[in-house]
Write a structure and sequence with these properties.
225 residues; alpha/beta; Rossmann fold; Arc Repressor Mutant, subunit A; 2 domains; five-stranded parallel β-sheet; four-stranded antiparallel β-sheet; 40% helix; 22% strand
């Protein structure tokens, strides 16, 4: 586990709490070092602060997402919706507002890690095919024809959940529980941003697949040929 924050007191406290919960924790204190460590392949997830020297958390996330789908949880200033949305748009899997409660952070972290390739998903079929789109749950792989689509953990599980629902509409509350592992709070746009990111990737690689917005309810996936 990698914690990236320039607040040394906070990283020490989080490191001690996470270690007590069974995680091996390393900490670095600027965005440039954080991006470099995150891309080393030595960590299962990253906890990344927004405001840091040398390289901001946003720029560090941009650098990480250019070549890695490692789970990233952003630490954002309380009420700072702009940074929160930007982080999600760049591919953050979740966020926790500061000052954060370590117990909530651990719960979010475990939820993200449960969505990784090592997790089992007995309620989801092993494979889904829709038009040019092919999703393999066990391999955590999505293909458009023969071309692989690189998705974050949250985007992959969002796509799997929509495919599993078939022609049924999934509400935002259902998607938040199933994809993010938490209840959706009022005015929480996380699901909407993940859907927007997924739509952009599908538009470039599988234009025959459409994620439909059902106003006032949620989302449904289907072919649009």
């Amino acid at each position: 586990m990698l914690v990236v924050d320039d607040d040394t007191d906070l990283t020490l406290m989080l490191g001690q709490y996470l270690a007590a919960e069974g995680f091996r924790v390393d900490a670095v204190h600027d965005g440039e070092a954080g991006a470099s460590h995150a891309l080393s392949g030595d960590y299962d997830a990253v906890i990344l602060d927004i405001m840091m020297p040398r390289l901001s958390g946003i720029e560090a996330l941009r650098r990480i997402r250019s070549s890695s789908a490692i789970p990233v949880i952003m630490l954002t200033a309380k009420g700072d919706d702009i940074d929160r949305v930007i982080g999600l748009e760049l591919g953050a899997d979740d966020y926790v507002p500061k000052p954060c409660f370590p117990r909530e952070l651990v719960a979010r972290l475990r939820a993200v890690l449960r969505r990784q390739p090592t997790s089992s998903a007995p309620s989801i079929a092993t494979r889904y095919d829709l038009g040019s789109l092919h999703l393999d749950v066990q391999a955590r792989r999505v293909l458009a024809g023969s071309e692989r689509i690189e998705l974050t953990a949250s985007e992959f599980n969002l796509l799997a959940a929509l495919l599993q629902a078939g022609e049924c509409v999934m509400t935002k509350d259902e998607l938040s529980l199933k994809v993010l592992g938490r209840r959706r709070a009022s005015y929480d746009r996380s699901v909407d941003v993940h859907v927007s990111n997924l739509r952009l990737k599908l538009a470039d690689t599988a234009p025959d697949i459409q994620i439909e917005t059902v106003r006032g309810v949620g989302y449904r996936i289907g072919g649009c040929l």
